[in-house]
Design a protein that fits this description.
By secondary structure, the protein is an alpha+beta fold. It contains 13 helices and 18 strands.
């Protein structure tokens, strides 16, 4: 239709000199008035909150704003062209990529733009929100809740039903399964059947920033006291502590691994390091540690000779963190050499900024055994990690985490910060008059939940005191706790 043809009556519109606008003299329709009314109904365009961290190219910002103007007026094609023009001027402009992802009709294009944002800025919240929706981890409504600043409601529940569990029985004869410590194979105690284990040793990790957003989308965080577990073999029901990942039925002897409960409060482990030490080897390691001079010297003041004890194997849950950090090293001259007076007056002699990282930072996910002991168990050889499967717990029991990943990440950040200070706080020979200050900031952090092998010994001493000892089930390292008076 000709632009000068009235859309209401079909007559030709002309320029009206008195009113200074194009209009139809038959029905008084004016394109200018119609546009003004449309703009009035649409209301003012909402100001776009930018997520890009850094300086934005002037031309890129102008093209980006034009794109949102086109969107406001219902022209997505021109908006898309404007956002692409913004990326021409600044390829790492995160908000232009996010806008194009929102306009894309196909998932591949959405992922391409969002993936580019994450490559430049792994913690960009807007890109992470959209990826969580694409991956099915959040609904649109849940994503909307992540913008709210209200704290998550914590609610305690005394008992909850374990809706999913796996019974560790042989598929051939129904006998009990176990794990061969020599080769790590899951076998049947009775017929010798060998379970085929997944060949994958890939232990996946999750971005901390993405997991925190997912956590924020949930209105309630549950604190569970106990779980009701139904035995699939004999039908018995029993109540087990919330900290137990595995449990043996007292009636039929079948071993169960909890997978989920009715309120979906559990996160399954990603990986596991198998036991390398037998019970005998763990006991010998404890005895060898007790014979070391520092422990024998302590016996002169307190009779800490061991009269007896128990030794149990258990898989303890650990959150394993990988961190990428920005490190700034500042060297300040503090001496009085005449050649350095100007520098001393201004303080800073040199400042270097670079990126560094630390992998496999373990934080134990339980409060008992105490953190001061579990923190000393490492290092574990993480190259021996294998992907988690329930059947790998057929021989030794496992605990569930009671310290969640967000709380554990705070501990991990402290470890990373101390590591960076110790690593980069170095002075060259003769730099006694040089003050070195190291500052680090975590750029991104990923994590996984893993089960690590531990032998737990409770020792009873001759004077009736008790003492806790932990043995690394992979390397044999022993950590001894302090003697405690037996509780009456």
């Amino acid at each position: 239709m000709n632009d000068l043809t009235c859309p209401h009556c079909g007559k030709r519109m002309r320029y009206d000199v008195e009113q200074e606008k194009i209009m139809c003299r038959d029905c008084d329709y004016s394109p200018l008035d119609a546009h003004a009314e449309t703009v009035k109904q649409q209301g003012p365009r909402q100001r776009v909150q930018l997520s890009y961290r850094g300086e934005i190219n002037r031309n890129a910002l102008a093209a980006f704003n034009s794109g949102h103007e086109y969107l406001h007026h219902g022209d997505p094609a021109k908006a898309r062209a404007s956002f692409k023009r913004a990326l021409y001027f600044q390829p790492d402009f995160a908000d232009a990529h996010i806008a194009l992802a929102d306009l894309a009709d196909d998932e591949a294009t959405k992922r391409d733009h969002l993936g580019t944002v994450i490559a430049f800025d792994s913690t960009n919240p807007e890109a992470l929100r959209r990826l969580l929706v694409l991956n099915g981890r959040l609904t649109e409504d849940e994503m909307a809740r992540t913008y709210h600043y209200n704290d998550q409601h914590v609610e305690q529940i005394e008992q909850v039903e374990a809706t999913a569990s796996e019974t560790l029985l042989c598929p051939v004869c129904g006998g009990h399964l176990t794990v061969n410590d020599a080769n790590g194979q899951v076998t049947c105690k009775y017929c010798g059947h060998v379970e085929v284990r997944s060949p994958s040793n890939n232990v996946g990790a999750d971005l901390l920033s993405m997991a925190l957003l997912e956590r924020k989308a949930k209105a309630v965080r549950w604190v569970v006291g106990q779980r009701i577990l139904h035995c699939n073999e004999c039908g018995a029901e029993r109540t087990i502590p919330a900290r137990k990942l595995t449990h043996q039925c007292p009636f039929c002897g079948s071993q169960h691994v909890v997978q989920q409960d009715a309120i979906e409060s559990l996160e399954q482990p990603n990986g596991l390091i198998p036991f390398q030490l037998s019970r005998q080897q763990a006991g010998e390691a404890v005895q060898a540690e007790l014979k070391k001079p520092r422990h024998r010297f302590a016996a002169l003041f307190d009779d800490n000779r061991v009269a007896g004890g128990t030794l149990e194997a258990i898989y303890l849950p650990f959150w394993l963190f990988d961190a990428l950090t920005d490190v700034t090293v500042t060297r300040t001259y503090t001496g009085s050499d005449r050649d350095m007076i100007a520098l001393a007056r201004h303080g800073v002699q040199s400042r270097d900024t670079f990126t560094d990282g630390l992998h496999h930072v373990p934080v134990c996910g339980v409060t008992s055994p105490p953190a001061e002991l579990t923190a000393e168990l490492g290092p574990y050889d993480m190259e021996a990690m294998i992907a988690y499967q329930s059947k790998l717990l057929a021989k030794y029991p496992a605990e569930l985490y009671s310290i969640d990943f967000d709380q554990a990440s705070l501990e991990a950040r402290g470890v990373v910060s101390k590591y960076m200070r110790d690593k980069h706080n170095r002075r060259d020979m003769g730099d006694s008059q040089m003050k070195v200050t190291v500052a680090s900031m975590v750029k991104s952090m990923s994590f996984r939940l893993v089960l690590l092998p531990v032998w737990v010994a409770m020792l009873t001493e001759v004077d009736d005191d008790t003492r806790l000892a932990l043995v690394n089930g992979q390397t044999g390292k022993v950590v001894l706790g302090k003697s405690q008076k037996r509780r009456e």
